[in-house]
Amino acid sequence: MEWLGDGLSAGETPGVDGAGRDCPIMNTYRSLRRFLSLLRLCALLPALCAPLADAQTSYTWDQIKAKFTADNPTLQADQSNVEEMKAEEITAYLRPNPQFTLSQDGTQIAPNNGVWIPAKGTFVVPSVAYLHERDHKRELRLKSAQQGTQIAASQHSDLERNLLFTLRSAFVQTLQAKAWLDLSQQELDYYDHIIDISRERFKQGDLARIDLDRIELMRVQYESDLQAAEVNLRTAKIQLLQLLDDRTPIDQFDIQGPFDFSDQLQALDAYRQIALASRPDLQAALQSLQQADTNHKLAVANGSTDPTLSAWYTWNSSNNNSYATQTLGASVSVPLRIFDRNQGEKQRTQIDIDRNRQLSEAARAQVFSDVDSAYAQLNGNLILLRPYRAKYLAQALRVRDTITYAYQRGGASLMDFLNAQSDYRNVQMAYVQLVGAYLTAAGQLNLAVGREVIP
């Protein structure tokens, strides 16, 4: 950056003229030039810092999952439902409020034998009554409410399980799109190298024009693959950002993770046992059965009679004891259960127990079906992937390099060269698709089991 200099010629001394005298004008001029240089540098600072502002933020799967569980609005809304169910436990355990009654009696309203003293015989009776709940009604209501909270929490976990599968599928799709883009770019770079060599051969007269044209026309396919890969990657990132409820620009968002497969797979029965212990939808079904049993007990308890206990105080009461100016009274009120008005609720809750028992058995059968299907899909992908890693990838590369080497030296035809290129491309594309299918199937198995058993 030559404009940062002070404008001195070789051998010049700052602020000194040709005769060796100090020159104030030259000093002022050079100070002005330095000030202008600093202004230009400040003007360039935003442009120099712009690449740092546009740098991508790359997330791992664990970071994406943590961000999703913290920010996804669907999960947050459903969590509020669990908190509402928790608040209902307080209401379920409330005691009945006592009743306070204030009554007045004994006031003379008409003269008798010419005597009328209205307030002399008036007495005031304050009384308190309380309904006593028998047969553990409050405890059963609380237990039913607590079980309802457990069901809501299990259903929330099940919602999170399904949403995480959708998130993992989008994450895998983005990884696959990145792998596809890298493969397309590598193949295009390799083919451009082949085109450069072919052009040199054409200049030297070692290659016909028609063969060079056919080689160059083949580049269109690689350009199309690269463009499609770029579009697929941007689309996958858009879907992932939507699930994260994130407004980060696509160019500043990226993910990272292994796009590969693991050959380690446990026995099917091990995944079944994990699923029986971990699946939240199965836990919700079993908890609903427990709640149905509690509700039936509560219905039976609600059929019992609850006495109402009352007590009152009287001052200046009218009774046979002329000295009893202050008296205390008590009573017990018990409803007569001539008709059982709760028999329908008892029958309904008994039927609900049977219904939830059948639903829990259906949920258990669904767990086995999901695990078996996901296991078969994952194992099928592994069967296809193993020969690719062991043989096909190396063979495709060896065939392509051998045919290319022979073609460049006249030992193979153009058709052989193009076929070898096409075969290599097809094998690589099939491998990327199979790895993507394996990772998706691994996510499906994690969904079926109820927790992450295959990272």
Tell me the layout of helices and strands.
Elements (H helix, E strand, L loop, with lengths): L23 H30 L3 E3 L1 H11 L1 H20 L6 E7 L17 E9 L5 H67 L5 H9 L1 H26 L8 E3 L12 H11 L1 H23 L5 E8 L10 E8 L9 H66 L5 H36 L6
Parallel strand pairs: 1-4
Antiparallel strand pairs: 2-3, 3-5, 5-6
Helix pairs in contact: 2-4, 3-4, 4-5, 4-6, 4-8, 4-10, 7-9, 8-9, 9-10
Keywords for this structure?
455 residues, 3 domains, 6 strands, Outer membrane efflux proteins (OEP), four-stranded antiparallel sheet, disordered N terminus, alpha+beta, single chain, two-stranded parallel sheet
Describe the structure.
This protein is of the alpha+beta class. The protein has three domains: 2-53, no CATH class; 58-95 and 135-303 and 343-449, Up-down Bundle (Outer membrane efflux proteins (OEP)); 97-132 and 305-339, Outer membrane efflux proteins (OEP), CATH 2.20.200. It is built from ten helices and six strands, in the order αβααββαααβααββαα. It has helices spanning 24-53, 61-71, 73-92, 137-203, 209-217, 219-244, 268-278, 280-302, 343-408, 414-449, and strands spanning 57-59, 99-105, 123-131, 253-255, 308-315, 326-333. The protein has a four-stranded antiparallel sheet with strand order 2-3-5-6, with no helix packed on it. A two-stranded parallel sheet has the order 1-4. Helix 4 (137-203) runs antiparallel to helix 6 (219-244) and helix 9 (343-408) packs antiparallel against helix 10. The two termini are 52 Å apart.
